[in-house]
Amino acid sequence: MYRVRYPGRVTEQRSGEEGDRRPAPAETPATAPAMRASDADRDRVAEILREALAEGRLDAEEHAERIDAVYRARTRAELEPLVRDLPVGQPFGTPPPAPAGATPSGATRNVVAVLGGAERRGRWRVSGRVNVVAFLGGVELDLTQAFFDQRVVTLNVTAVLGGVEIKVPGNVTVRGSGTGILGGFSMGGHESSDPNAPVLVIQGLALLGGVEVKRVSGEQVHDLRAPDRD
């Protein structure tokens, strides 16, 4: 209750009645939570960084620092600054529609070694895409006893001051190419006599490091429809 003075009289008026024009307190908008990053988001950013290194837009130290940050990132907001200064700096836009008749490439698996070692061997299921990163470390990827979900599997390999060794069954088709900068990228193409055998497409970069692909004779790829025994 407050008093209003008019010439010659004083009246009392309650708050909320006509004449009380004080503004209501503004509501504070809720802050939307940060979008969590998926493995596919990290893969897209890692691929942009790999191309930037090959084109000379990033040096080896910058590339290594950003790759390390990519696989530590938990949200998209942490990934976006890593490619903001590169030509393809918006990796999270709406992807173009897939062409008619295209089949999904399957899930993505990452094998990363930073200042250490990583390996994948024995009976494990190979997805449609595998990203391998070795920075000041080593990775051993053994596919000789693996089960293949997809007939065509893409391996993206990056070795910076580190090494990657890939063992493949003798009856698998191996295609692709890699770039060695002050390092080596050794792989020999092979066409399997079995028209239904899986196809490994290996691509990547070795900078002051090495990538070696070895065919293991006597080892045969497991049936694509074999149950997962990992």
From TrEMBL:
Span list, region Disordered: 1-41, 86-106
InterPro entries tied to this protein: DUF1707_SHOCT-like, LiaF-like_C
Domain Cell wall-active antibiotics response LiaF-like C-terminal stretches: 123-194
Sequence ranges assigned to domain DUF1707 in this UniProt record: 35-87
Compositionally biased residues, Low complexity: 25-37
Basic and acidic residues: bias regions: 11-24
Pfam families named in the record: DUF1707, LiaF-like_C
Protein's recorded name: DUF1707 domain-containing protein
Originating organism: Streptomyces alkaliphilus
